[in-house]
Write a structure and sequence with these properties.
The chain has a six-stranded antiparallel beta barrel with strand order 2-3-4-7-6-5. The chain starts with a strand and ends in a 5-residue tail after the last strand. The mean pLDDT is 83. By secondary structure, it is mainly beta. It is built from three helices and seven strands; from the N terminus they run βαββαβαβββ. It has a single domain, classed as Thrombin, subunit H (Beta Barrel).
Length: 116
């Protein structure tokens, strides 16, 4: 599949994806979910485990995320020193073109040293 995500998100903040023991770079936006989170979760039918109500959405360019959809739940995304747990992920496509990757995240209480 052809990808345009890199061009769309090249000026966005860097993120690090940790999945299946590997670390991968990407770029994108992480935004808090606003409104009634229970409505959002019911429509997505997520296998949650522990739910802390700190839901966020990642949208951006992270090829490794779409290549590992089956094992994405439980992976971590690190952005700006904050750690997020991936609850679900998907590639957003238009025909044979990957527009971006999208993931539902849960912000954890962990923080990491900010990489420069």
């Amino acid at each position: 599949m052809r990808r345009i995500a890199g061009k769309l998100f090249k000026s966005q903040p860097a993120i690090k994806l940790i999945i299946d023991g590997g670390e991968y770079a990407g770029r994108g936006i992480i935004s808090k979910v606003r409104g009634r989170k229970t409505d959002f979760l019911e429509t997505k039918r997520l296998p949650l485990g522990e739910f802390r109500r700190n839901l966020c959405i990642f949208i951006g360019d992270c090829k490794a995320l779409s290549e590992n959809i089956a094992s994405a739940a439980g992976a971590e995304i690190i952005s700006g020193g904050e750690v997020f747990r991936v609850l679900s992920a998907e590639a957003i496509t238009a025909g044979e073109i990957v527009i971006c990757e999208r993931a539902v995240l849960e912000k954890t209480s962990e923080e990491v040293a900010h990489d420069k």
